[in-house]
Amino acid sequence: MRIEYNPKSYKAEEFINDEEIRATLEYAEANKNNAELIDEIIEKARPVKTEKGCVCRGLTHREASVLLACEIPEKIEKIYAVAEEIKLAFYGNRIVIFAPLYLSNYCVNGCLYCPYHQKNKTIPRKKLTQEEVKAEVIALQDMGHKRLAIEAGEDPVNNPIEYILDCIKTIYSVHHKNGDIRRVNVNIAATTVENYRKLKDAGIGTYILFQETYHKESYLRLHPTGPKHDYAYHTEAMDRAMEGGIDDVGLGVLFGLEMYKYEFAGLIMHAEHLEAVHGVGPHTISVPRVKHADDIDPDEFDNGIDDETFAKITACIRLAVPYTGMIISTRETEEVRSKLLRLGISQVSGGSRTSVGGYTEEERPHDTEQFDVSDCRSLDEVVRWLMENGHIPSFCTACYREGRTGDRFMSLCKSGQILNCCHPNALMTLTEYLVDYASEETKKVGYALIEKELDRIPNDKVREIARKNIDDIRNSNRRDFRF
Ligand code: SAM
């Protein structure tokens, strides 16, 4: 039976519609050398300055897919230039920093690409106790982290929602020296509206769930056993999360599993669906690529994508959904991260350990790791590297704590007030990092950058307050200022 495409439907196969994706890919293929159409689409994506600030129209999945298919070198350069323009218009040169915290690798699923799959008998299983969570959080605070993404396998017996809620409570309760974790994002398996409501009540930031692949047949093959096998339940999770009151949700595809053009169209359609149904698109999109891990060989997946294609995907996402933050993890090397930062990435992880209990170990442990980390630098090195490349590392968590979530965050993005709000917040939280955690070398680079960047705050009053707060942070134990 034919399934109609309907972005407003709550049924997975209607809003991620296979027939529509195939038609999109055909349309994109037919127009990949259509220079006139490509120019028109790029023009549509470009930020427009209005009296109230910058506005972007974004692109439909069909338009964005044409850009992704385009093979004309000068047009690709143009796509990259517009991606950079959009990034600067809405996110400036700030890069938000976070770290993953692995709570448990117990899992009842059979995901073929993930070492936590139930049949893997070589990986030691580990679940943090609340005391261990506390120790990990202290170690993370001592590095300078303020924002975490908690990660766990799916296991209703070992990792029930109560366990996740206990961990969140513990994380928020730890205040070591001048440290605290001010935003906990959650990356756990698809769950019920009731459980999403509990997560919302526990004060989480973003609920993140990677779709892995939008291609149903591949999805079923790659998730042969366990609750994650249910394609509709997984794909409709964000709607349940929103029904449960979580209005910042994070999408993602595990690139390398399926044909990337198919995934890309599915991802943009998912964003369109959230916008059509809930009036607000995804808060973030992550772009992980499948990596080597215990029991997993990425070469087994024959849809791996090279760095150039990966950059193109990132830039095209930036053009299609301009107000959505984009995340890249330490799965990627310094070189790849450098390039992608310019093309639209707004959040990176730093100093990450992907094993359960990894932060309290002196040496990076590999036994319970979820995947190999490519960027093994310390947080201090990542922060300095970002600053030396013209970015402002930001430890800001203000929006969600000031109630600027969902469409209210998007309004801030569109209002042109970012330079009077996010920019000073980034500088103040960076100062906290420099004073409390940075090496002397990083401090030197950082203070010079802050001095220069303070002058870019347009509003005189805001600039004055930010300067005073920064002086306070440097000369006292006062912390956590925010606009
Ligand atoms: N268990 C949760 C679920 O079912 O969605 C999510 C937590 S899992 C720890 C986080 C993500 O890691 C997965 O969604 C998957 O995309 C990614 N991942 C799993 N294996 C990977 C691998 N070998 N390389 C890179 N990323 C991987």
Low-confidence stretches: none
Mean pLDDT figure? 95
Number of helices: 20
Distinct small-molecule ligands in the complex: S-adenosylmethionine
Overall form: globular
Spatial extent as radius of gyration? 22 Å
- SS content category: alpha/beta
Largest sheet: 9 strands, parallel
Please give the number of β-strands.
11
SSE topology:
Layout: H1 12-15, H2 18-30, H3 35-45, E1 48-50, E2 53-55, H4 61-69, H5 73-91, E3 94-104, H6 130-143, E4 147-152, H7 161-173, E5 183-187, H8 193-201, E6 207-208, H9 216-222, H10 231-235, H11 237-243, E7 249-252, H12 260-278, E8 284-286, H13 307-320, E9 325-328, H14 334-342, E10 347-349, H15 379-388, E11 392-394, H16 398-401, H17 406-415, H18 418-437, H19 440-454, H20 460-475
Parallel strand pairs: 3-4, 3-10, 3-11, 4-5, 6-7, 7-8, 8-9, 9-10
Antiparallel strand pairs: 1-2
Helix pairs in contact: 2-4, 2-12, 3-5, 4-12, 4-13, 5-13, 6-7, 15-19, 18-19, 18-20
List its salient traits:
single chain; 483 residues; alpha/beta; nine-stranded parallel sheet; two-stranded antiparallel sheet; 47% helix; 10% strand; binds S-adenosylmethionine
